[in-house]
Amino acid sequence: MKKFVIRKTGGPEVLEMVDAPDPKIDDDQVLIDVKAVGLNWSEIMIRRGEWPLDLGGGFTPGAEGAGVVEAVGRDVENVKPGDRVANFEVEAYLDPGQGNYAEKIAVPADKVLKVPERFSFAEAAAAPMAMLTAYDAMVNHSPLPEEGTAVVTACTGAVGAAAIQVAKRNGLRVIGTSRSKDKKGHITSLGAEAAIESDPVRLKERIAEMTGGDGVDYVFDPIGGETASQLLTLMNFNGTYVLYGFLGGQQLLVPSNILFEQIQIHGYVVLRNLYDTLWLQEVWSEIYPLLETREVMVPISKTFPFAKAAEAHGEMENHRHFGKLVLVR
Fold first, then answer.
1. How many CB atoms are located within 10 Å of the residue 76 CB?
2. Residues near 287 by Cβ (< 8 Å), separated by ≥ 6?
3. Partners of 87 in the beta sheet?
4. In this predicted model, what pLDDT tens digit does every residue of 195-243 receive, in sequence order?
5. For the segment 85-114, what is each residue's pLDDT rounded down to a tens digit?
6. Per-residue pLDDT for 260 more than 90?
7. Which of 53, 120, 174, 273 could form a disulfide with 192 if both were Cys (CB 3.0 to 4.6 A apart)?
8. pLDDT tens, 152-198?
9. CA 14 to CA 312: how far, in whole Å?
10. Distance CA 94, CA 29 (A)
11. 213, 217, 220, 223 alpha-carbon torsion, rounded to 10°
12. Sign of the C-alpha dihedral, residues 44, 49, 53, 54?
């Protein structure tokens, strides 16, 4: 089979396609013929050397993919050869050889995810990381309020787009933020209001203006840094700020109003929360009906041929896309 490996850190050009033997499966594993792979920013960080990972003899990235079950171990009962499935493989961040940037992958059967019949492989590959992150964080880990205003920052990525839909489904007023005026129409198409600003102070002022000074009840943010420090000053009593990334820097200055307003600041990492496969399947069972009816969807910005992984990485780093970038075979 063909797969991509990263032997050294650097630009998209360090993604190297190599020949490798087909994976062998254990009794509790499933062999998947991968047809599509969802790209995530964490893979950009790994490639750049921004995650402290050992690349070993060649690191194959990719935590999510979709395809057809080719073979199953003798103890597997939940799927059979020929089934169309997705997978969410947390071990892709731990085991250098266990990523979805490959024509085939062997995963434990309890990491295999059921996908709606009407879904294309690209849609199936786009859904796991974004939907599991947004839904588990906003419904289970740090529940949304019953009413009020939610702000979703960096909302034009796949997780942010999913988060807007989850918050809207809960009946909240949603404000989505972006640095790009070109993406305003995409934000409003999901039912959110758009706050377009690149400077954190001006962003805070813009959101305050939009809410008429009524404040914000919930923030879902992968940026942190100065953006978090500024937006925390807008939070209402008992508001919740969920931080699931540090795109704006790891330094976070917390304003004094968190004490008097009893603001809750929660960190969320999907890879830790859904490492337990029983919980992974439970959360996916809650999400699945929403995907099946297309009540929530992860928008696909663009697909790339599998061999064009480096080009897809370049597109992601340019931040021009809205939603998900997907490799397809």
1. 20
2. 127, 131, 132, 135, 296
3. 65, 112
4. 999 999 999 999 999 999 999 999 999 999 999 999 999 999 999 999 9
5. 999 999 999 899 999 999 999 999 999 999
6. no
7. 174
8. 999 999 999 999 999 999 999 999 999 989 899 999 999 999 999 99
9. 13
10. 18
11. 40
12. positive
Rounded CA gap, 137 and 252, in Å? Answer: 20
- What gap in Å lies between CA 263 and CA 254, rounded to an integer? 11
Query: What is the extent of the structural domain holding 316?
Result: 2-128+271-328
Number of separate domains in the chain: 2
Q: How confident is the model over 23-50, as a mean pLDDT?
A: 96
In sequence order, what are the beta bridge partners of 78?
A: none
Token code pair at residue 59 = 């690191």
Count of alpha carbons within 13 angstroms of residue 222, beta-carbon side? 22
C-alpha atoms less than 13 angstroms from C-alpha of 289 in its C-beta half-sphere: 4
Q: Which residues share a beta bridge with 29?
A: 108
- Going by the DSSP 8-state scheme, the letter that residue 77 receives in this structure is -
Last residue of a domain, one of 267, 285, 308: 267
Domain boundary among 226, 246, 267: 267
CATH number of the domain bearing residue 261: 3.90.180.10
Examine residue 135 and state whether it is found in any structural domain, yes or no. no
Q: Residues 6 or more apart from 116 whose CB is under 8 A from it?
A: 124, 288, 291, 292
CA dist., res. 24 & res. 21, Å (int): 9
Residue 262 has a pLDDT of: 95
User: Which helix (DSSP H) or strand (DSSP E) does residue 68 occupy?
Assistant: strand 64-72
Q: Which residues contact 318 (CB under 8 A, 6 or more apart)?
A: none
In a domain, 307, yes or no: yes
